[in-house]
Fold each of these.
Amino acid sequence: MDTMSLLMQGFAVALTPESIMFAVIGAILGTLIGALPGLGPANGVAILIPLAFSLGLSPTSSLILLTSVYAGAMYGGRISSILLNIPGDEPAMMTCLDGYPMALKGKAAEALAISAIASFIGSFIATIGLVILAPILAKFALKFGPAEYFALFALAFATLGGITGKNQFKTLMAAAIGLMIATVGIDISTGVQRFTFNTLELFEGVDFIIAIVGLFAISELFFFLERHAGDGLKQVAINKLKLSPKDIIKVLPASFRGAVLGFVAGVLPGAGASLGSFISYTVEKRVSDKGEFGKGDPRGVAAPEAGNNGAASGALVPMLTLGVPGSGTTAVLLAMLISLNISPGPMLFQQNADLVWGVIAAMFIGNLVLLLLNIPMIGIFVKLLSIPPKYLMPIVTLIASVGIYAVSHSALDLYFMVGFGVAGYIFRKVDIPLVPIILGMLLGPEMEKSLRHTLVLSDGDWTALFNSGLSIGLWTVAILGLVLPIIVGPIVRAKMAKSKTATKGD
Amino acid sequence: MLNTFSMKSILISSAAALTIAGQAYAYEPARSAECIAPANPGGGWDFTCRSVGKVLVDLEYIKGNVQTVNMPGAGGGVAFAHTISKRDKDDSLIVAASTATTTRLAQGQFPGMNADQVKWVGTLGADYGIIAVGKNSKYTSLTQVLEALKKDPNAVKFAGGSASGGWDHLKVLMTAQKAGVENLPKIRYLAYSGGSEALVQVVGGHVDAFTGDISEVKGFMESGDLRVLAVLSEQRLPTPFDGIPTAMEQGVDSIAPNWRGFYVPGNASKESYDWWVSTIDELYKTQEWKDVMTKNGLISFHKSGAEFAQFVENQTLDIRILSQDIGLIK
C-alpha cells in the first residue's frame, strides 16, 4: 500500500508538462538512436548525458529524459532488424530471425506493429516488477556493510562476461584497464595523489562520462570512417498495415512469457538484455505449437522483443537499489547519477523518493508514448533509417563534443574524449569489450574503498570479508558466475549460432 | 563593453565619494554576472550559485541574468586556478566557496596557490557540523564518546562524506583535540564519497559514529534511526533541531560551521568588491533569502568584507596547524 501511494506521488511528478515533454523527446530520440545500426542504447544515453548537463536540467528531468531514451532505443532496435536484417543493437538480434522473413513476405508493417505491442507489454510488465522488487531490495540493502559490498562488487565483475560472453580473459583484461584508469586522482581514503602529475584537472580522476562518450560514440565514428559507408542501407519496402485483433491476441501469450523471462534475466547482474531476448525466443519456440519459427512467425517477433524490453527495465533494479549496474546502459545511467551527486542505493529511495518514483512513473508514461509513437508514426522512423550515415555521424560527433565541453569548459576534456575514442576503436578491433572498462572505472574506487573500510573496521583481519551469511552467499554466486560461463558458455553460444544460421539459410 | 563600464564606474565613484555614503553605490554592476560553481550540478556549490543568482535577479540587484557555470575539478582547484590566471580583473565574476575551499587551501592541495590571491566577499549561511550514532549505539552523549576515545583512540570509528583529511574528518579531530584526546592520528575515519553513503553505514550498524552536517541527517533523525549526540555550534539550532545539545554544553569548545559563500578575483576593482559585499549584506537580510535558507537547512552565519577575509585567514591557519599536528601535511 505504501508503495502505491509513493507511486501515485511519482505520477504527480511524471505528469507535469515538463516531465511529459522530456519523456516524449526521450522516446523519439531513443527510437531513432535504437533504429540506426551501430548506435545502441548505451551510445545514445552516453551522447545525451553531457547534453542534459549543459542544458542545466534538474536531476529528475535528466533521468526521465535518459530512461526514455533507454526505453526508446530498445523499441527502435527492432526497426532495422525487421527491415534491414541488421539489428540496431545487440539485444535486437533475435528479432531478425522472424522479423526479416516476415518483412520479405510483405508483412513488414505487421511485424513492426506486433513487435511494438510486444515491446510495450515487455516494458510494462517489467516496470511493474521494478515497482514491486526495488523497494524490497532497497530495505534489504541496509544489511550491506563494507564486506558485503566488496563481495557484491566482486560478483559484478565475475559475472561481467555473462553467459553469452565470448572471451573471459579479454573481459577480465578490459575490467583491469578500467580499474587502472580508476586509480588516477586523489585517493579519498588517504588523501594521497595517484598518477596526477600535479595536473589540477586530474585531481578528481578521469571523468567516466568522457570515457563513455569517447569509447562508445567516437569510436563508432572511426568505424564509420573505415567502412566509408556513404549511402543509406537497402531496405524492404513497407506495406499497408493490416492487423486484426485476432493477430494481436495470438501473440499475447508469447509476449507475456517473454516479458517475465526478460525481466528475470535483466535483474541478474551481467546477464542483460541480449540473454533476455535469447531465452525468451528459445523458450517460446519450445513452448508453442510447431508454427513456423525462423520463417516469419509473429510469435518469434513478439517473444524476443518483449524479452529485451523486459530485461531493460529489469536491469534498473540492481542499479537503483544497490548501485551495481546489470548492463552496459545501466552502467552509463549510473555514471550520470553519480555525476549529479545522487548516490544510488538504499538511500536513493529514502532521500530522493520523488526522483525515483517520478522516474518509474515516467517509465509507464514513456512506454505508452512509445507505443503510440511506434504504430501510427512508424513511417517517419523508417524514412529516417534511409538518412546516409555521412550526414548522421558528424551530427552525433558534434553533439557529443559540444556536450562534453559545455559540462566542464575544459579543452583538456575534449582531448581526453578523442583519446578514449582512439582507444575504443583499437579495443573493438581486437575484441576487447568496452562495458567492463566502464564498469571498472565506475566500480573500482568503490570496491577499493569497501575493502579498505572492511579492514579498518576489523583492525586488519582479512576473515572479516567472509563473516556474514550474506557475504558468503555473494562470494558463492560470484565464483559460479566466473566458472559457469566457461562450462555452459560454449553450449549456449553454439545454440545461438545454430538458430541464426538456420534463418540465414532460408 | 567592460571597459566602458569601468570607465563609467570610475567617474561615478569619484562623484559618489562626495555624496553621502550609504544608499548610493559608487559602482554600477554590469548587466549580467557569472557565478562559477567549482563542481558538477547538484552539489552544494552549484546550489549556492543557482540560489544566490536567482535571488539577485528576482530582487533586481542585477538587471540581466546571473549565469551559473559549472567548473568541476580538484575540489575547487580548477576554478581557483582559472580565476587567478584568466579572470583576475573580472568585475562581474563570483565563485562559490565553502569550508572545503579553505581546507584545501590550508593543506596546500591547490599547488602554488593561496587564500590571498582572491578577495573574499562574504557568507550567506552555514551548515553546522554534528556527531551522531545509530539508534542501537551504546553511546548517548558526546562526553561518553570522547571518554572512550581518551582510553583508546581506536575505540570509536567514524564515517563521513569527505576524503581523509577533509572537513568531516577534521571536525572529529578538532573536537577530540579540544577534549584532550591524545594520539589523534590513531582515530579511525572511514571516508565515503558522500554523506548519505556514510549515514547508511552508521544506521545499518556497520560503523560506530557519523560525522557530517546537520542538513544531511534530517531524514534519519526524524525516523528515529539516528541519535545526534552534539551539534558543533555556539548556540542550539532553531527548531526542529533545538533538542540537540551543543558540544559546548557538554564541555567541549568545538565549533564547526560549514559556511557557504563567495570570493571574487584578486584584482577585481575595489568598487565592484564593495558592491558585492554590500549586496550580499542586503541579500542576507531579505525574506526571499531567509526562505531559501529554511528550505535547504541552512542556518544563520553571516560575515562579509574585511571581517570575512580575517575569518578565512584564521580558519586556514587553524586547519593548517591541526593538519600538521596530526601528520596530514608536513
Amino acid sequence: MKVKKSTGERIFQVFNYVFLTVITLVCLYPMWHVAVASFSNSNRLMSHTGFLLKPLGFSIQAYIKVFENPMILKGYLNTLFILITGVFADLVLTSIAAYFFSRKNVLFKKPLMLLIMFTMFFSGGTIPFYLTLKDMHLIDTRWGLIIPFMISTYNMIIMRTSFEAIPESLTEAARIDGAGHITILVKVILPLSKAILAVMVLYYGVSIWNGWFWATAILRDREKYPLQVVLREILISNDSQGMNAGAVGDAEAVAQSIRYATIMVATVPILLVYPFLQKYFASGVMIGAVKE
Amino acid sequence: MKKYTGDRIKKDFQRNWSLYLLVIPVIIFYAIFMYKPMYGAIIAFMDYTPAKGVSGSDWVGFANFTRFFSSPYFVRLLRNTILLSVYSIVFGFPAPIILALLLNEVGNKKFKKISQTVTYLPHFVSMVVICGMIKDFCLSTGLINDIIAFFGGERVPLLQDPKYFRTIYTVSSIWQEVGWGSIIYLSALSGVDSQLYEAASIDGAGKWKQTLHVTIPGIMPTIIVMLILRMGSLMSMGYEKTILLYNSAIYETADIISSYVYRVGLIDQDWSYSTAIGLFNSVINCALLVITNMISKRTTENSLW
C-alpha cells in the first residue's frame, strides 16, 4: 500500500536531507581543513583567512619536519608496544572474568558481580589510584599504563552477555569429554565469539591509543612517552616552535603547518583501519545495551 | 533466596573449585586497582605524607573537607562543575536522540550510510588531537574568528576569554559525540514494532503524531537508561578535555572540581587535601546516580537495578 505523502511530510523530508547534509559537512570539515592545510605552503597558509577547500600550493615541508622529530617515532613505538601488549592482556583477563560470570550454578557469582558492578559507580578517586600505582612500583614504567587497566567493567559485562548466549549444550559436551575450564574457554567459547572479540579489540585499542592522562601522570622519562603525550607537547603546550630550525620570521608560519601535519601523522592510521572496524560498532553497542 | 549455608558452600566448591581458581587473577585485579584505592581514600581524613605512609600519618577528621568548603575556590569550582554538567545534559544529551530520529526518517540508504560514517568519525580522533584542533580554530587568527570577522565581528582569542569556555566546550563535545551516541538509539529505533506504525497510520496519525506516540515511547527505556548512566558520571566528566583546553586566564569559568584535584594532587602533591576533594566529588556522583535511578523507577518503571 503506497500512502500519499502530505505537503507537510514532503517539506519535512527536504528539510531533513538539507539538515543532515549540513551536519555531515560540519563533522567532516575540521578534518578536511587540517588535511588540506598540512599540505599547503606555510606562508600562504598564514595569510589565508576562512575556509580551505584545496591546498594552497603544495608542500610536504611540514611532514619532513614532523618526521625529523625523533620524539614522534619514539612515541609511535611506545604506543605500539603498549597497544599490542595491552590489548592482548586486556583480552585474556577480560575473557576469563566474562567466562566466570557467564557460568551457571556458581554460588558466589552474584556477590562477586555486585562487588565488581559497584566499582563502576564509585571509586577511590584519582589520587588514591595514583598512590596505589606508586605502591605497586608502576610509576615511570610502561607497564603502569597496561596492568592497572586490564579490565574495563563495562567491556567485561558486554563480553559476559555475549558468552551467555552460547548454547550450554556445546560447553557441556566438552565437559563430558573431560575438558577443563581453560580448554572450554579457548577451544569452544572464544572461536564462537569472533565478533565480540573484534569489538573488544576496538574498544580497548581505541582507549589505549587515545590515552594520555595517566601517561602524563606517571611517566617521568621522556623516552617512554606514548604518542599522545608527545602530541600534547606539540599541539597543546605549543612546543612546535622549538621543533623547527628555520629562520625566525618564518617560524610561526612553519609552526602552524607542522601542527597540522602532526595531527595528520597521528590520526591517519586510526582512520585507515576505521572502515574495516565499522561493521562491528553497532553490534558492540547493541550487546552493551542489553539490560541486566 | 539462596542461602550460603556450610553444606551448600562445600558442595559448590567441590563442583566449581577449578572455576574459582581461574578467576583468582580477576579478583586480585579488582582488589588491587579498585578496592585498594577506595581504602586509600581514607587519607582524606589524614595529614598524609608519603614518608609516614597510611598507617603512620595523623588523623585530622574532616579538616581537609572544611578547608575545601571554606576555600575561596569552592564556590567557583562547584558552580563551574554544575554549569558545565547542566549544559552538557541539556544540550548534549538530546542531540544524539534527535540525530537518530532524523536519520531514521531518511529513505535513501546510501545517504544514511555516508551520514552515519562521517558523524561517527570525530569519536575516533583522540582527545589530544581534538583539543589541538579546537585550540587552533579558536585563535584570534583561527577559522572561527575568520568567520566572525567575515560577518563584521571583532576578532577575539576565544580561549583567553572566560565568557566563551562553556560554549566552546559544549558545542565541541556535541560535535565529537553526536554520531557515536546516536548508534544506540538507532538500534533501539529499529526494534520498534512496525505494526504499531501501521495501526497508528490506520487511525489517521500523521508522521509527527506517530513519532510522538509510537517512536518516542518505543525508545524511552533506552533513553532513560542512558540518562541514568549519564547522571552517574556527571561530576567526573570532562576533566581530560578541560585540562587540555583551559589556561590560567580562564580558570574563572573553566576550572572544575576534577581539574582542580589534578592540579592540587598530581602537580602540587597535596595528597590528603586533593583526595578529600575527589571523595566529595565521588560521593555526590554516587548520590546523583542513586537519586536518578530512584526517580526513574517511581515514574517510568525503568531503572538500572
Amino acid sequence: MADIRLEGVTKAYGSHRVHSDLNLAVNQGECFTLLGPSGCGKTVMLRLIAGFEAPDAGRVAIGGTVVYDAGGGVNIPPDRRGLGVVFQDYAVWPHMTVFQNVAYPLKIAGWNPEELKRRTLETIALVNMKGLENRLPSELSGGQQQRVALARALAARPSLMLLDEPLSNLDANLREEMRFEIKEIQGKLGVTVLYVTHDQEVALVISDRMAVMDGRGRIRQIGSPAEIYENPADAFVFGFMGVANFLPTRSDGGKLLAGGGAQPIPWPGPEGKAEAWTAAFRPSDIVISRPKPLPGAGCLSGVIRRASFLGAMMDYLIDVDGAKIRAVLETHEAMSRGLIFKEGESCAVTFLNLHWFDSGALKETAI
Amino acid sequence: MNTIGGKRRFGAAEIILLLSIAVLVVVVAVPVLLILVNAFFSGGSLTLADVSAAFRNRGAWAAAATFFRLAVTSFNGHDVFKVLGESDTYEALLNSLFIASGTTVGSTVVGTFFAWLVTRTDIPYKQLMKGMFLVPFMLPSFIGAMAWKMLLSPRAGYINRFFMDVFNLDGPVFNIYSYYGIILVEVMYLFPFVFIQVCGALERMDPTLEESARISGAGLFTITRKITIPLVLPSILSGALLIMLYSMAHFGTVAVLGIENGIFNIPTLIYQRIHESAGNFASIRTGTVLASVLVTAAAVIIWLQNRIQGRGRYQIIAGKSFRPMELKLRGLRYPLLVVCLAYIGFTIILPTVVIFLVGGLRTYGLSFTMENLSLDNYKFILFDYQVTRDAIWNSVVLGFGAALVTMFAGVMISYVIVKMRVRGKGLLEFLGMLPFSVPGSVIALGVILAWSGKYGVNLYNTVWIIFVAYIARYMAFSLKANSAALEQIHDSLVEAARASGATTWQALRDIVLPLVRPGMIAAFFLIFLPSLRELTVSIMLYAPTTRTIGVAIYTLNEDGETVMSAAMAGVALVIIVIGQIFINRITRKRSGS
C-alpha cells in the first residue's frame, strides 16, 4: 500500500504556470479525488505523479520512496513506479485481445505462464468481463473497453492506482454503475486511488477525501465529501459543488438588507469584517411558503418570476428585491401544502442552511 | 514521454533524435548544401584548410573571421547570373517553364473535366473508368514517350507513315519531336495528379452545401459557379502545383522526345553537361546553378501548396462519402462515354500495345505481321543479354534495399517528429521538409558532389551511389506514410504501456511497432515499385555494370536498339503491373479485416 506526498511541486509550460509550490498528501488505502474545472491542471498533477511529466521543482514521493526530486536529481521512470493508470480515452491496445491487454503488465514483469493466466482471468472476472477474453477492443463497447483498461491497471495489483476522468466518455447510466464498481473494487483490494474528475457528483460518491482545485490550479479545500459539501471553505468551492444561489446584501445602520430593497435579513448575520456580504444557499435549502400576513416575520417576501414543472420537482425562479434565486421542491409536497405557484404570485422564503461570503472576494473568484 | 529519465542523462530519446538528424543531414542536407555552395561560391577559395589553420594559430574567433572573410570574397552571385545568362542555360530555363506551364494547364483542364464526369454526372461505368484514369500513375512516362515516338516520329512513326502512305501526304501529320509533342505526352501521364485530388474533393463535399443553395433558388449553373467551383478550387490548384513541380523537374519525356530537335529543359541539360564533360569544373558549375534554380522553384511551389491546402481544409468539411447531386447528361451520355473510352484507348491502350508489338519485331520499321513478330527479343533480354539481366537484378536489389532502409529510417524520423518532445526537434522538422522539395536530378547531382571522394568516401561508379540517392529521393514517401500511421496512435497507448512496467524500448516494440506496421508496409511498396522504373536519378549515376531497368531501356533506345528497348520496356511494364496487383491485394485484405 502506498501514500503520496507532493512537496513544493512547480510545473510550467513555457510561460504558462500550471502549478506553483503545490503540496498534497494522499493517505494509504484511501480513495482521493482531485476535483476541478477543466484546464485547471489536475491531469497534469496526475501525470507528474505517474512520471509522464517531470516537475520543474519540488519532490514527489510514493509509499515513502522519493520518485522525483528536482534538487537531488532523482527521477524514477513510470515503468518503475509500480502503479496502475486508467486513461480518459481507455488507451486499450487495439492490436491485442482483452486477455493480452490485461496480461501485459504481468508479461513484462516476467510472471510464469500459469500464474499469469490465473491472475489475468481473475482480474477479468473482477471487472465483470468474464467470457470476453478473446475479443478485440474493436468488438467491445466503450464501457467494456473501460473495464479492460481498469483490469489492466489492476492486473499486477499495484499499490497505487491513478484514474484520469475514466468515466467521462461513458453515457450517464453506465457512468453511475461504473463509479460504484470502482469504489467496490477499491474496497476489495485496499488499493490507494487517486481519481481526477471535473464531475462533482462522481467525486462525492467515490471519495474518502477530496481536494477542490480552482481554474488556476490552486487547491481551495481538502476534506471529506460531507465536509466540503456542508462547510465549503469559500464561494468557489460552494459554487463548484452544485447549483448555487447568491443573494447580495448591503448594510444600512447596523442592519443587513436583502438585494436592492428594504427588507432586513431576519437571521443571524455573518461574523468577521467585510465591505459587503453575500448570502449563499442551494436551491434545495430554500423553504417556500404562501405570503405571511406580517412582513419581516422570520422570512423574506418575493415574487415568482418563472414556474417550471420538472415532473418530480417544481422549479421556481424568485425575485427578491432584484436578486434572482432558484428554488426547488418536491412536486407532491408542493401539491399537498398548496404551494403550486403561478408566475407573478407573491411568496415568502426562508432558508435551511445559509453561507456568508465576502462580496468582494466573491467577484474575484467568479467561476 | 521522453522527459522520463531523459532529464539529466543521455537517454534513448536523445539517441533516436541524433540518429534521425544524422540520417537526414548525410542523405539529404549535405548534397543540397554542396549544390548551393558550389553554385554561389567559386570552389577553390573557400577551403576549410585555411579556416582550420586559423583556428590552430589564433583560436575560434579568428577561425570564424577567416571563414567569414573567405565566404565573402569567394561569394560570387555575379557568376551565377553569368551562367544563367549563357544562351543554352537561359533557353533550358525558358523551356522548363514553358513545358511545365503547358503541361499544368492541359492536365488541369483534362483532370478536372474527367473528375467531374465520373463523380457528378450519370455517365455509365463510372467505377471502371475511375480506375482506368488512374492507370497512367503506374506507367513510367518515358516509356510512354518512347511509344509515342514510335507512333508519331516525323518519318518512322507508324501513324505518320500510315497517313503519308494512304493519303499521299508530303509531311507528317504530327511531329512528336516538338514542344507540343512533349507537352501532350506529359499531360497524358501527369493529369491523374489533378484528377485524383478533384475526385476526392467532389466526393467528400457535403451535398447539403449545394442543396441549401438550390433551396435558396439558385440554378445548377449558379450553384456550380458560386458554390461548387470555389469549394473545389483549392484541390484543383494544389493538384496543378504538384504537376508544375513534377514537370519542371521531369527528365524522361524531354530526354526521349526533345534531344532530336535540341529541346532541353533544366534536368536534361544538367544530365547532358555532366555526361559529356565527365565532371569537369565548368559543367558541374552549370549543373549546380541550374539545380539551385530547381530547388528554389520547388521550395516556392511547396510553400504555395501548403498555404492553399491550409486554406482549403475547412471549406470541405465532411470526411465521409456522400451521395452527391448527379447531373443528368441525357443525350450527351453516350457521346461523352465515347470520348472517355477514346481517351483511355488512345493514351493508355494504344501506347502499351505498341511497346509490346515493337518489342516483338525482328527489326524496327517492319509491319506488324505474324512472320515479323516473335518472342525472341524477350527471351534474349531475360536470359541471354548480360546488360539487361544485370539491369533487372540491379533494380530489384536496389529497390528492395532502398525501400527497406528508407522504411526504417522514415519510421524513426517520423516518430521523433510526431511523437517525441525533445529539445532540438525543430531542426529535425526543418530537415524533414527537405526531401519533399528536392527534385531527382538535384539529388543525383548533390550525391555526385558529396560521394565522389572529395570528402573521403568515393562511391562513384558503384551501385552504392545509386543506393544513397534512392534513399534521399524516396525519403519523402516514407515520411508521409509513416507520419500518417503514427498520428493515429494516441500518446496514451504508449503511456499505458509505460505505466504497465514497460521501458521505452519495450513500449516501442510491443505497442508502437505493431500499430505502425501497416504504414511501414505501405511505405515499403510506395518506394519499391517506383524505384523499379526509376530513371532520373540512375541515369546520372550509372556505370557500365550498374545500369537499372530505366537506364537499360533509355540507353538501348538512345543507341538505336529500338526493338530491344521496347522489349525491355514491355518486361518492365509486366513487372510493374504484377507488383501493383500484389499491393492492391495486400491493402485490400488489410482494409477488409
Amino acid sequence: MFVARLLALIKKEFLSIWRDPKSRAIVIVPPILQFLIFANALTMEIKNVDLMVLDRSNSCESREFIAGFEGSRWFGKIHRANTLDEIATDVERQKIGAAIIIDSDFARHIKSGKSPNVQMILDGRSPLTATSMNGYASQIAAAFSKKLNQRQGIDGARICIEVRNWFNPNATYKWYLLTSLVVILSLVVTLILTALSVARERELGTFEQLIVSPYTSSEILLGKTIPPLALSLAILSAMTLMVIFIFGIPFTGSFPLLIFSAFVALLSFVGVGLFISSISKNQQQAILGVFAFMMPAILLSGFLSPIEDMPKVLQHLTYLNPIRFFMNISRGLFLKKMPFADVFANLIPLGAVAAITLTMAARSFKRNLE
Amino acid sequence: MPKQACIDIGNLTKSFSAGKTVAIENLSMAIEKGQIIGLIGADGAGKTTLLRLMTGLLLPDFGKLCVCGLDPTADKEALNCKIGYMPQRFGLYEDLSVIDNMKLYADLKNADRNFDSMLDFADLKRFKSRLAGKLSGGMKQKLGLICALMGNPELILLDEPSVGVDPISRRELLKMVKGVVDENRTVIWSTAYMDEAHGFDTVIVIDKGRSIYRGNPYDLASNAAELEGKIIELMGGYVQISSPVAENFRAKRTNVTYAVEALGLAKRYGDFHAVRDNTFRIKKGEIFGLLGPNGAGKSTSFRMMCGLIKPSGGTAKIMGIDVVEKPSLARSNLGYMAQKFSLYPNLSVRQNLEFFAGAYGLIGKDFADAIGRMTRVFALEKYLNSNSEELPLGYRQRLSFACALIHNPSVLFLDEPTSGVDVIARREFWNHITSLAKKDVTVLITTHFMDEAEFCDRISLFSKGQTIATGTPAELKKKAGAKTMENAFINLISKGEEETP
C-alpha cells in the first residue's frame, strides 16, 4: 500500500513535468543548447588579437624578429605603425590588443653582442588578454634569441623550458570546459526542476490537496525527490556520453563510479532545490532563489578561477559547495583516471553536504505543513 | 421622455481560442442611465468578458458597442475618464497601505486627493495606514470600490465584488453602492448569486453568452428563492433525480457516534488569538455548516481540522482518530474539496483520477473500479483524455468532487464548494450532498451564502475566534428573532460583538 501510494505520487510528478511545456523545455532544451553553445563559443584561450608593430630599426634582424610574430598562430593581423601616436590611438580604440616598439639600435645591439630592448604596450583594461599576449611575445622572443645564439655560435641559451601538459596533452581548453559543463548543467536542471515543483503546486492550490491526502510529509518529500533525481541522472549520463563520443574526450576512469558520484551530488542539489521551493510562495520566487544560490556556487566551485587563488574565507566556504567536489570527481574520472581512494575522498564531503541540504529541505518542508 | 441609454449593445459577439469558445454570442441590449444593474450568471457565463468589452480591455469580434456615448475600441482614453472598473481579482497593491493605494488611484485618474470623506464613506479611516494585503476580504472590496469611484465616473463596473465577502460586509458594500447611484450615474454589479440579484433595480441574467432575462427582478419573482427557481426554468429547468453519486457510494461500517470532533481547538499567532477553545461534535451523517464573517476564524478552524494548520492547543478527531497524533490515518477517511479548483491542470481527467485513487492506496481491482465508477456517475467519459484545465467549468467542479469521493470517504470537508457555479449545477451538487448524508457520510461545509446554510442540519456561527451559537437553522433564526437566515446571521453576530467588545 505504501509502495502503491508512493508510485502514484512519483508517476504524477513525472507526468506533471512532462506534460507542462515549460518544465519539459527545462529538461530538454538547456542541456543540448548550452552544450553546443558553450562548447563552441566559450573559450578562455586568447587568440586572433591584432598586433601593431613600430619598427624603428628597419633592419634584417628586426624584420626577422617580426616574422616570428607573423608566423605564430596566436595573433590576428600584424599592423605596421609609423608613429607612436598611431599606436596610442589604436590601443585607445581597442583596434589592437598589443603593440611592439623596436628601437632604432636593435640591429646594432645584436651585432655588438648586447641584448637589444623591445618594448611591448599592452591594454591593461583586459588583464587576461594582456597576460596572454605577454606570454606569447616572451615565447617568440625566446625562440628568436635561441636562433640568434645558434647562428652566432654563442651558447647563450642557458635556460630551455620544455612544457608537457599532463592529462590534456595539447592543453585543449574544451577538455577542461566540457568536463565541468556536465556538472554545471546537471546542477541547473536539477535545481530548477525541484525548485519549481512545490512552488508550482502551491501556486495551483494542489499542494493543499496533497497535504489533506493521507501522504505523510516524508512521503511527499520522497515523491518530490525521486523524479527530478532520476531525470537529472539520465540527462547527466546522456551528456557524458556526448562528451565521450561526439567531442572525443577520453574517459579514463570508472563509469559506474561516475554515476554513483553523480547520484550523491544530485541528491545534494535536490536538497537545495527543495529547500528553496519550500520557502518560496510562487514559481518566480523559486527561480530567483535558484539563481541566488547557483551563481555564487558556480563561482566558488573552481570552475572559473582556481580555489587556491581565492581569499582564505571564501576557500573555507567552498567546502560547503557540492559542485566543488563533484567537479573534482568529474574531471578526475574523465581525464586522469582518478583512483577510487581519491574519488572517495571527494565523495565523503559530498555525502555530508547532501545530508545537510536534504535535512534542511525536510525540516522546512515539515515546518511549512504545520 | 425615455431615459438616456448609458450602454448600447447590438449583435455583440466575442470568442476566444480562435472561435473555439464563444463567450458572448450575438448579444443585444440597451442599458439605461441612473440605476444599479445586476449582471447575473455563473462563472464562465460571459459576465467578465462583457465587462471587459465595455471597458475596452477586450475587442469584440463583431457587433456594436457604445458606452457613455463612446466606442470603447476607438475612444478608450476618453472612456477611461468616464468609467470606474473594479476587477474581480482585487485590483489593488497588497504591499501598499490603504492611503497609498488611494493616492495612486487618484493620480491615475487625475482626481482630487480628497480622501477623508471617502475614508469616512467606506468606514476605513481607522485602517488608513494598514497594508491593503492585511485587510479582511470585506474591507479590501470597500477599498477597491472607493478606488474605482475616484474621479467621479459616470459608469461603475464591479466584477463580482461580493465573492468571498460575508453577509455583513456584503450588506455594507451594497449600501455604499446604492449611495453613489444618482440619475447620471450607473452601476453594473456582476454576481453569481440570486439572493443578491433580487435587490437590484434591473437584472440581466447571462447564460452561456446569451441574455436569458432582462428586467425588474420583482416582475419575475417576489423573493430570491423564487427568483432562483424562475431562472432555473429559463435555463431549461432542473429535474431532481436520485443522486447516482450516492447510489454508487460504498459506505464503510463504523460504530463511532461522532464522525468529526473538535476538542478545544485553538490557534494563536503571537498575541493574536485566531481561534479560542473551539469545541463541537458532528454526528455521523450530519451536514454541519461553519458560518461567520471574514476573519472570524472559521477558515482557520476548518484548516486545523483537516491538518493544513497545526493547532496551538486542543485537537480534532475524524472518525475517532486524532488528526494531530495520527494525521495520515485520520486523513484517509477524509474527502476534501477546496474553494479554488485545485487539480493538476496539465494532467488529463483520467490521470487526475488515477493519482487520487493511488494516493488513497487503492490498488488492483479496487483502483480500476473506483475510476470506472467515478467516470460513470459524473459522466466524465467524453473528457477522460482532455487536460483538466480545458474542461468547462461545471465539469471541473464535477472532477474535483469525483477526486474527493474516489476513496468512499466517511467524512467530507467542503470549503465554499459552490462558489461560481451556475444555479442548476448548485442544485445538483446539493442533491448529491444531501443524498450522501443519508448514507451516513458526514459533511463539514463552509459557505458565505445563507440560502445554502438552510440546507445544513446544524450550523456553528463564528465570531472573533469563538463559536457564538450552534443549532439547526430554525433554532438560530428563532434565537435571533429573525425570519431569514441572513438576518439571523447579522443579528447574532452584532449581538455577539456587543457582548465581547
